Amino acid sequence: MVSKWEKIVTENGSYELDLWPNLEILTSNALSKAAFGSNYEEGKKLFDLQMELSELVMKSFPLPGASLLPTKTNRRVKEIAKEVRSSIEGIITKRLKAMERENAGISYDDLLGVLLESNSRQIKEGVNKNLGMSIEEVIEECEFFYFAGHESTSVLIMWALILLSKHLDGQERARQEILQVLGGKKPDFDDLSRLKIVNMILLETLRLYPPGVTFARVLGETTKLGNITLPCGVQVNIPTLFVHRDQEIWGNNANEFNPERFSEGVASSTNGKFGYFPFGFGPRVCIGQNFAMLEAKVALAMFLQHFTFEISPSYVHVPYLVVTLQAQYGAQVILRKVVKSE
Ligand code: HEM
């Protein structure tokens, strides 16, 4: 991505870029590699189907049972589900054949490889041969992993860059930290843990623009919430976005971008109150949170190392929900190359 952008920004010049399509390719590529060991081109079909599905889901009528009606949208949603399934099945069949050919000589360190290998080990060694997953279950795991992981991370990187394009002081502080830690080289794992300011910027971005604005829990027992008694089995929605901007938790500047509030860590930013959960909480907390934070740190570090970002006059600030919290009219910024001091 950096070399692609370097080609389009002329020396001493500037270029107006919509970040969104670029970041979608970036995170889709990263997740395709982590999940299937494949590249963007191979995962592209899944990516296009997911885009179409998100749009359709947002358009669909939010009434119980409405998804069962034989409407054009519902028919297309079903077709997409089938296409996704057969696309992932194709990737898995190809892998199983390769594993057979290589006679387990090579191990694959992507999600699919780990799932298939641990699965065949469990079937071979397990007392109960039914413990292994069926191919159907492997397909479902891969499908969910891909869909849960790619768009949310591009949304995080996009809002972080938009916020930094509006807060140029914060952008320059982050760049100085990155240049101090990395100089001109690419980041490695140890470098990333030393990027404190970048980490604070990402935490603050997730507070103001959590990619998932709400998530749900079904009550396991009758529960009292203030004066209301909720029966067992009721679904409760937890409004992450509202809690993240609640002035009782975050103070009068709750709506302002202030990464410094995380300088002493997450717990002290909320004065010990339970008010920050961009990745959910409890036993079903996001399993990809470390992956997402690492990926976002690498992306910010490499982008800020090479480019400056300024908000474009054509950018219109309208966050809107298409499954995740996106920018309705695009994420246009003005890109310039960082001037390297001698
Ligand atoms: C900024 C990026 C991300 C955000 C904000 C995010 C957010 C979330 C949230 C809010 C949940 C629901 C948690 C709950 O119910 O308590 C979740 C679940 C999940 N996420 Fe993420 N996620 C991100 C990236 C990823 C990535 C990169 C992956 C995969 C590599 C991933 C895989 C999953 C999976 C598999 C679940 C379901 C866990 C379960 O039900 O046990 N997520 N995520």
From TrEMBL:
Give any Gene Ontology cellular component: membrane
List the subcellular locations.
Answer: Membrane
Instruction: Identify the domain of life.
Output: Eukaryota
Molecular function in Gene Ontology: heme binding; iron ion binding; monooxygenase activity; oxidoreductase activity, acting on paired donors, with incorporation or reduction of molecular oxygen
Q: Where the protein is mainly located, per its record?
A: membrane
Establish whether keyword Mitochondrion is in the entry: no
> Which cofactors are required for activity?
heme
Q: Specify which residues bind heme according to the UniProt entry for this protein.
A: C286
Which residue stretches, if any, does this entry annotate as coiled coil?
none
PROSITE patterns noted in UniProt: CYTOCHROME_P450
Asked if the keyword Heme belongs to this entry, the reply reads: yes
| Entry protein name | CYP72A54
Which gene holds the coding sequence for this protein? LOC107060879
